[in-house]
Structure formats: structure tokens, C-alpha cells
Automatic annotation (TrEMBL):
Signal peptide start and end residues: none
UniProt xrefs under Pfam families: LigD_Prim-Pol
GO molecular function annotations of the record: DNA ligase (ATP) activity
Enzyme Commission (EC) number: 6.5.1.1
Protein name from the UniProt record: Non-homologous end-joining DNA ligase
Listed InterPro entries: LigD_pol_dom, MtLigD_Pol-like, NHEJ_LigD
Broad enzyme group: ligase
Gene3D superfamilies associated with the record: DNA primase, PRIM domain
Keywords, in A-Z order: Ligase
DNA ligase D polymerase domain boundaries: 28-279
Record flagged with keyword Ligase: yes
Organism whose genome encodes this protein: Streptomyces tropicalis
Length: 293
């Protein structure tokens, strides 16, 4: 029987704590839950008021991996949910608003994915995201070169960009925006990707065509669409090792020469948070949001 734990007055059954989820690292479900509890202070603000899509991998990354968008069966009544628009009609989704909800969701073994809008205004984007995805033999070091170009290009429009690892092969750039629809944000992001390709045609690609991707960095602008989601800051990823989508400094991006320089595992992140705080905190401050040109 799963042990019962009380988290801020809520009773949770946390199951299979000794189960190894990441065999390459011997990383267990109990360690995963400990990680999420440790980084909750910086993770929760990035989940707050955003309907969460769960990429679940209950038997580890080598087992079944599937997306869950609707409220899962057996969700406790105290977990906040909200009705959100979908192309196929409204649906009810989970909002992870507090530590008990986070630990309940983490117990399902999940990556956390969120849209670029909050539930109070699903038609309005408040974040811009560019997903830099390297096609081998390109690496995250090539992504860093592209990120630096995009940072300067965004700055010319008065928009400040922040970076995090994808937790996989690439890099995510994020910025706080306002007064823009998801469609307008997508169009602007596509324009940036096209400009980057024109500036660095031997390195950058803005089209999704897989046959064109080897050796190039695909600047995925499409995740700004209202229906799309992106891996949340600080989420663990379903990879062979317990890699995290971790915020990075621009100095780290500038220094990046080898892929391993920008790979962070669960154990790396709490010390980074103690040293830097939340490097993406400006995204949460409305004063930092800028209108698109």
C-alpha cells in the first residue's frame, strides 16, 4: 500500500518510491519527487494559472510515454481545474497552483508542459518562445550561436530574451510579451526564424521539413500557437538520464562550446537555484512584458 504523506494539509498517497525511472543513472521515483519538492519555489510560479499538459512515463522513459491533457481519472477534488478552449470543443484541464498539487502531479511521473497564455486570457499570449532544435551533427553549441543572434535581434525590438536548456538536445528562448494574440505572436516568431535563416543560411532552418534538418538548427516558432505547449522551466524530461529544462545565464550561452556544457541533471539544479535564484523570474513580472512591434 502506498505511504500516505501530508503536504500542506493535503493527504497524498505517493507510490513506488523505490522504482528506478532512469536506469542509466539509478534515479528513482522517490528522488524525482524529492527534486520537485526542492525546486517547487521556482517551478510553481511558471505553472501558476497555466493549464498543464502532462507527458507521462510511469515506467520510465523506456516504457510507454503518452500525453494527457484532460483531468486524469482519480484527480483529488482539491486540485484546481479549469475549462479551456480547444479546437474540438472546451475541455477541463489541471492547474498546478500549489505544492500539494505539484506533488500529486509529480507522483503520476510526468513532464510538465504549458501554453504561452494563462487561463484567464486564453486568447492572449503573454510569452514568446523559440525552440532551437539541432539536427545532428549540429549540437546545442550551434543552438547557442543562433540564440545569441536572436537575442540581439529581439533586443532591437525592445524585447529581452531569456534562455533555458530544453532538457533534451536544444535550447529554448523565452520573452515576456503583452497585447498580442497567439496568432500575432506566432507570425512574429516565424518572421524572426526566417530572418535568422537569411542571416545564417548554412546553420539555421525555419521550416519543419525533416530532410533539411541534418547539420542545422531548426528554429521552431510554431509553439506560440494557442493550441501548442512547451516544456516548463525546471521540469524533468523523459530521457535516458534525469535531465532538466534548466534556465541558463547568457554568459553560459556565450561560453558554450561542447554539448555537455549545457546539460543539467536533477542534482545540478538546486545548487544553481541557490546561486542564481530563478533566472527566468523577469518573465513573471508584468513590468518586463513588451508589446510586439
Amino acid at each position: 500500500m502506498a505511504p500516505i504523506t501530508e503536504v500542506e494539509g493535503r493527504r497524498l498517497a505517493l507510490s513506488n518510491l523505490d522504482k528506478v525511472l532512469y536506469p542509466a543513472a539509478g534515479f528513482t521515483k522517490g528522488e524525482m519527487l524529492h527534486y520537485y519538492a526542492t525546486v517547487a519555489g521556482v517551478l510553481l510560479p511558471h505553472l501558476h494559472d497555466r493549464p498543464v499538459s502532462f507527458l507521462r512515463y510511469p515506467d520510465g522513459p523506456d516504457g510507454e510515454v503518452f500525453f494527457a491533457k484532460n483531468v486524469p481519472p482519480g484527480t483529488p477534488g482539491w486540485v484546481t481545474t479549469a475549462e479551456v478552449p480547444r479546437s474540438d470543443g472546451p475541455a477541463r484541464m489541471v492547474l498546478v497552483q500549489d505544492l500539494p498539487s505539484l506533488m500529486w502531479a509529480a507522483n503520476l511521473v510526468t513532464e510538465f508542459h504549458t501554453p504561452q497564455w494563462v487561463v484567464q486570457a486564453p486568447e492572449r499570449a503573454d510569452r514568446l518562445v523559440l525552440d532551437l532544435d539541432p539536427g545532428p551533427p549540429a549540437t546545442v553549441a550551434d543552438c547557442c550561436r543562433v540564440a545569441l543572434w536572436l537575442r540581439e535581434r529581439l533586443a532591437r525590438d525592445g524585447i529581452e530574451a531569456y534562455a533555458k536548456t530544453s532538457g533534451s538536445k536544444g535550447l529554448h528562448l523565452l520573452a515576456a510579451v503583452r497585447d498580442a494574440s497567439s496568432g500575432r505572436t506566432s507570425a512574429y516568431a516565424k518572421g524572426l526564424a526566417v530572418e535568422a535563416e537569411q542571416a545564417m543560411p548554412d546553420l539555421v532552418l525555419h521550416r519543419m521539413t525533416r530532410s533539411l534538418r541534418p547539420g542545422k538548427v531548426f528554429v521552431d516558432w510554431s509553439q506560440n500557437a494557442g493550441r501548442k505547449t512547451t516544456a516548463a522551466p525546471y521540469t524533468l524530461r523523459a530521457r535516458t538520464e534525469p535531465l532538466v529544462s534548466a534556465p541558463v545565464t547568457w554568459a553560459e550561452v556565450e561560453r558554450c562550446r561542447e554539448p555537455e556544457r549545457l546539460e543539467f541533471r536533477a542534482g545540478d539544479v538546486p545548487p544553481r537555484v541557490r546561486e542564481h535564484g530563478d533566472l527566468l523570474a523577469p518573465l513573471l513580472d508584468p513590468e518586463h512584458a513588451r508589446p510586439l512591434p
